[in-house]
Amino acid sequence: ITDEKPDGVLAGLRVLITAGPTREALDPVRFLTNRSSGKMGFALAAACQAAGAQVELIAGPVNLPTPIGVRRYNVESAQQMLDKANERVGKAQILIATAAVADYRPRAVQDDKIKKSSDSIALELEKTPDILGELSRRETHLFTVGFAAETRELERYARAKMQRKNLDMICANEVGPGQGFDVDENALLVFWPGGQQQLGPRHKRALAGELVDLIATRYATGDE
Ligand code: CTP
Ligand code: CA
User: Fold this and answer.
1) Computed over its alpha carbons, how large is the radius of gyration of the chain?
2) Which stretches make up the DNA/pantothenate metabolism flavoprotein C-terminal domain (predicted)?
């Protein structure tokens, strides 16, 4: 009989990850969404699992296989993602929010399919809940990692976001044509309150492994 100890930089830790886009319904057959592929979140789930963590993955609609050993929950809307995150966050030590959550949703969801009539119509939108922001403010024990896709002023916007959402770390990437969304390569500029590090550019899978190492280091180091 061997006393099997899990090894890896996240051994014994529980990690909750959000990934993919959300879908915000307009009517029974239509929704608002975005171009997120979910690849970074799924790659991170696999990398955390490989690093010895118990991983739960809350995924919006994406066309990706569940990494082996990872427990996956499928959701559609931002509200469903928040509800599931609230349900699963209790035992987690680390939350990694890679999801590209829709910022707005239609104020009213029509029960019947919207018919074509006028030449133009206006959609009234309301803000969705901030999943990461809510959890990180409420669950003060959690080590929280956010993502920020920006088209300009990467460091300024990312650091502001980290402060506003009370995060331990934020991973910023520049997005634009062929960059960040729906591609296999990515580069991240990772910020935490006392420092920063550039990761990549490289394949999202390799990048995920490096990011997991950095998260483990920062988690172990804590605030200085
Ligand atoms: N996020 C979230 N819930 C939301 C919006 C964002 O959990 N409703 C998370 C994302 O998963 C990401 C981080 O917050 O980890 C930052 O997302 P981002 O869209 O960059 O920030 P926003 O606060 O939505 O600000 P903006 O889109 O205006 O830049
Ligand atoms: Ca947003």
Assistant:
1) 18
2) 10-217
165 is in an annotated binding site: yes
What tens digit of pLDDT does each residue of 146-167 get? 999 888 999 999 999 999 999 9
For the CA atoms of 66, 68, 72, 76, the dihedral, rounded to the nearest 10 degrees, stands at: -10
Catalytic residues: 34
ipTM of this complex:
0.99
Among 62, 103, 175, 191, residue to substitute to test ligand 1 (most atoms within 8 Å of Cβ): 103
| The token pair that represents 32 in the structure block | 């608002």
Mutation to probe ligand 1, out of 83, 132, 153 (largest number of atoms < 8 A from CB): 132
Burial of residue 119 (CB within 10 Å: 0-12, 13-18, 19+) is exposed
